Amino acid sequence: NPPKIISLFFTLAVLAALPVLLGSWLMLGANFNHLGKALGGAPVSHALFFGSIVALEGIFLLYYTSWNLFQTLPAAAAVGLVAFLSGSRALSEVQERRLAGLR
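Structure (tokenized):
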């Protein structure tokens, strides 16, 4: 198992970065009003993209705690392929909205 102090340090680092992330989104003008339009335009690709990002984080957690590299690489490759394909479609939908003047 990994040393507890290392795990605790990085957990605190991630938690400390979350307010910075949220503040940056607010400062840059993130528009959460278009979430419904995004999910309505391409619901499967947006859901698959978000799910694949969460799955990759889970794979990295398993690698950190119990898996070896030979278990991690095939799973990460499969989930990464899903993330690439669904992310391409999701970002195409975002671009279509931006070109239509919906920011």
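Residues 32-103 form one domain. Helices lie at 4-28, 35-41, 43-65, 69-99.
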